[in-house]
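chain below, 549 aa
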Amino acid sequence: MAGTKGITHVPVEARVRMRDGVELAVALHVPEGGGRFPSLVAMSPYRYDNDIVPEGSLFLWRETGPVEFYMAQGYAYVRVDVRGTGKSGGEYRFFDLKEQQDYYDIVEWIAAQPWCTGKVGGIGQSYYAMSQWFMAAQQPPSLACIAPYDGLIDSYRSVGYPGGIEGEFWGLWWNIVRTINQQPANGAAAKEVAYDLPLEVKRHPTYDDYWKERTVDVEKIKVPVFSIGLWSKLDLHLTGNLEGFARLKGEKKLLVTGAPNVFAAAAEFSKIELHEKLLLPFYDRYLKGKASAWDSRAKVEYFVRGANTYKTSDTWPPADVRYENLYLRKGPTGSLTSLNDGALAPQAPGKEEGAASYAYPDPGWVLGVVGFGPNGMPDPARRVLTFTGPALATDLEIVGPIKLTLFASSSRTDTDFFVKLSEQMPQSAEERAKGLNPASQIVSKGWLRASHRALDTVKSTEQEPVHLHAKAEPVRAGEVVRFDIAIRPNAYVFKKGSRIRLEIANGDSPITDTIFTHMYLPEKLGEDTIHHDAAHASVLTLPVVSGSL
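prediction:
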């Protein structure tokens, strides 16, 4: 049975005073019949009175999971409007310290209620998952466990400025928050959220104190954690679930699912089946002290895209990964039409291998960096730089972090690198003769602004570069510079006969990146050059599990 309807149970509303005197609005969903129950808490700026709308993909912010299902399982479910939203007092400031402290106060208030056993767990997707990370870092004594489903821990690196490049997602998300507060589903009084988050994002282009305050200190989390991420949310939450799991010191398990997109992810979390299988055993174990299927669950589980199967491991990334190189080389490969049709090969380039340049904005760009093919359809590869490997002799499985070491120069003192790793499918000779490009599937992405190339030498590893983003350091026009670019981790099988393809441009497109796009700025006028000779061996490093390059 799937949860497809909004909440029909009428909650008891209460107001809870925080340490600074601000009162938060709370909706209590407590099972009937009396008694004491372990409690789940979900906090967001989405107004709990909007929970009457149907669950699923239409209302993407409806991410509580099936409330009444948990009541039937003997749990109280507490919904809270974070300060400055819904029916709560105070001013909203997007995960500032006051909001974080509210999480502590709410947990301890719930635990002290006569209907609660004194044990509280966190629940929910996206914002609700982010709030769980912050909640646990506040260390409220009565918090017993959290299960952040699809939740980031670092707003700057994950979505605000991935690679130091400002994303457009804030404007879209902020318009949703404001609208659903002003026009709630039940017709209650409108709430104007005056805070201008997109403006604040623009005011803080580097990783400064604003962003540090809004980054979870994962090392402070002591309670058991079930970190659940989605490969399809690599533009937003994925690194939070992976990095959060890696940095946790206590009891923890990781699951990365195969939901194909943000809409499927929202629909999946609303279904009772997911909660029966994944989350209920976790909560039963740590909130009720019951033996459950949780105890036999592997420490790490992940969906392998392309193979459409789950695998398990004791570590992330799995211990049997070997890192192999594919060097950017001179083409053509003849396998597609692009600005350069460069090659990828296991052999390093020679002295006179050369370089590939492109001027921008390209006159063929229509929707971001995407142009149109001869059939009048959008063609993501046609007007960008590509580097493509030979047809694979066997299936090739990769699992883990992906890295691009790139040597590049620019006519400008700053530029952006948008990198996509794709599987290029086989194409018939007839289709190739028509000039149509082969079908492809994006596997993962990476981003880096040239002026943000400085590495965090403490957090970076050989395979996973982490950048400081502390200040902008311009490059000198025409100078060849090394850039270490993290392509977000994934688990994927490239099929026999397909080709591995790398795409490079200085922008993206709503065609390829849906709601996670970046504005093409008026200042982006110039020419960039990707170098791939013996002295500047640009190389893609893949985490290979099986197969050969």
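The chain has two domains: 12-297, 322-546. The domain at 12-297 is CATH 3.40.50.1820 (Rossmann fold).
thats it, cya
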